[in-house]
Specification:
Structural class: alpha+beta
Shape: globular
Order of helices and strands: HEEHEEHEEEEEEHEHEHEHEH
Distance between the termini: 25 Å
Number of helices: 8
Number of strands: 14
Strand order of the largest sheet: 3-4-5-6-7-8-9
Largest sheet: 7 strands, mixed
Radius of gyration: 18 Å
Strand content: 15-25%
């Protein structure tokens, strides 16, 4: 991992994210339009998504005019070796539109296609999560990430909602939830990756699992989890696009033995 501090980039990014989020929470336009996807499930974009993205890009571009942007509400995204900000302006848009407080903004800076800093902001809770290798993971400026170990039966497990990319992933996700039913303490499906990852690094969630799709969905939180010292099953992620995060390797091994053994994950 890159050990450069990226102090200025982190300062500008957190200010940009907070400014955009304060605007869409207090005075945002929640009117929406439906988006199409490959499996035909319901998905939307609000006017606030677009406005927040434009606001964050403007702030970052003013400070770093040579940087590139790879964003959810943009066409023609392409990741190169150039410094690139990957941005999800409102993650959990459906919750935002319906007035449910489970949403946020997240971004990650990629250098030579590798993450070097990430920001997740959950505005309703006023919680700003940041991560760099040099500074670790912080919540509102205070270091976090102690990675406790719990028996699987005592674990709270969150999982992404049903994939909009592949029907196969949707089917496997259904199997996964069934396999977890009698093995873990509680299952949570928050519907916002930013909250899944933020609550995981804050030790509110013991295990998180999801199929990964777009960079803006998972890379800010995955980088944050890695920096926090969480267990990431890198082989599983590379071969099947299935992400398994746990506070400890022991928890992950129990989860694979008692849950994933009942679900056949196909190689990508």
């Amino acid at each position: 991992m890159d050990t450069v501090s990226y102090e200025e980039e982190l300062r500008i990014a957190t200010e940009a994210v907070r400014r955009a989020a304060d605007r869409y929470v207090s005075n945002g336009n929640r009117d929406s339009e439906e988006k199409s996807n490959t499996v035909g499930s319901y998905d939307i974009v609000t006017y606030s998504d677009v406005e927040a993205q434009e606001s964050i890009i403007a702030d970052l571009r003013s400070a770093f005019p040579e940087d590139r942007f790879y964003c959810e509400e943009s066409d023609g995204n392409q990741l190169t070796d150039a410094r690139t900000w990957v941005i999800d302006p409102i993650d959990g848009t459906l919750s935002y539109e319906r007035g449910m407080p489970i949403y946020g903004t997240q971004l990650v800076l990629m250098v030579s296609k590798e993450p070097v800093l990430s920001v997740i902001y959950v505005p309703v809770l006023k919680e700003m999560f940041t991560a760099t290798v040099a500074d670790g993971v912080r919540l509102n400026g205070t270091p976090i990430g102690n990675n406790p170990h719990r028996d699987l039966k005592k674990c709270v497990v969150s999982t992404g909602d049903f994939s909009r990319k592949k029907q196969e992933w949707r089917d496997k996700h259904y199997e996964l939830i069934g396999a977890m039913r009698d093995e873990v303490a509680r299952i949570r499906m928050l519907g916002a990756a930013c909250c899944d990852f933020a609550f995981f690094v804050a030790d509110r969630i013991d295990i998180h699992s999801r199929f990964v799709n777009k960079l803006w969905d998972f890379m800010p939180g995955l980088f944050m989890a890695r920096v926090a010292g969480a267990y990431v099953d890198e082989e599983l992620l590379e071969t099947t696009k299935f992400l398994l995060l746990a506070q400890s390797k022991e928890e992950a091994e129990q989860f694979k033995e008692k849950v994933l053994s009942k679900v056949v994950l196909n190689k990508e």
